[in-house]
Amino acid sequence: MTKKLKIYSTLFVVALIVLVMSDTFHYSSMGWSPAPDNKMEFAELPSEFEKRDSIPGGVVSTGVPLISYDVNVQSWGRPDHKALLSTAQGQTYRVDMRKIRISIPASRTGSKVPLYFIASSAIFAIIVCLWILWLVIKFIRSIRRGEIFVTKVAKYLEITGILLSLLYLNALIVSYFITQYFIANIHLADHSIVFKNECNSMFILTGLGLMIISQIILMGKDLKEEQALTI
Q: What is the distance between the alpha carbons of residues 56 and 60, in angstroms, rounded to a whole number?
């Protein structure tokens, strides 16, 4: 077994274990921290979220530009056995919010940091995807020519695997830092924003798998050459 094959195989196993554990175990040390001015309720939209113009016979409402983000949240916990309940058609359910969309008026957004992170991540992802597409085309051409156990095919697979892994890591890093920015700058009543890895794990698992296959192809190439010399 080559050195690279050992490294890629170890990384695959470690990534698989980490992904399984991150989906299975969660830890939180948050407790109840009430504040008198914190509240979450159904209420009429403030004027900064909706522009209202009076006209003869009524009022016309016009939405204002908003910036929206999807975030994961966790309740602080409530005292006196209280909970958010939903009652409809004679049945009552406890409602626990885990993921919500928050909207902020564009005029109130002071920092552009999240937008810069998202934009840079999107540009990086586009470049990497185009690179992967180019490698896939070259790989298919080599296969159609009957070139399988050759160095360049192994190299195509290895680079594609590395790029897929980088796509995953890019999304993970950007998601983490944006969430940390929200935690520091956005405060919700009775809830805290928390980080949860929602990146598609198939990117890194497929990437590491291709990297392993690339080394297996190189081993097959060496074995094929040894057999040819023996004959």
A: 10
d(CA 193, CA 179): 7
Joined together, the tokens standing for residue 34 give 């009430």
The one-letter code for the residue type at 95 is V
Is the distance from CB of 31 to CB of 79 less than 8 angstroms?
no
DSSP class per residue in 20-38: HHHHH-----------TT-
Q: What is the DSSP string of 41-62?
A: ---PPPTTTEEEEEETTEEEEE
Instruction: Give dist(CA 18, CA 201) in Å, integer.
Output: 11
Q: What value does the mean pLDDT take over residues 15-19?
A: 90
Contact indicator for 196, 102 with CB cutoff of 8 Å: no
Identify the pLDDT of residue 29: 46
| Greatest pairwise CA separation for the chain in angstroms | 97
Residue 4 or 55, more confident: 4
Chain centroid, CA 207 distance in Å: 16
What pTM value is reported for the model?
A: 0.79
| β-bridge partners, 192 | 74
* Closest by Cα among 79, 58, 98, 86 to 193: 98
Q: How far apart are the C-alpha atoms of 85 and 124, rounded to whole Å?
A: 43
- What CA–CA distance (Å, rounded) separates 99 from 193? 9
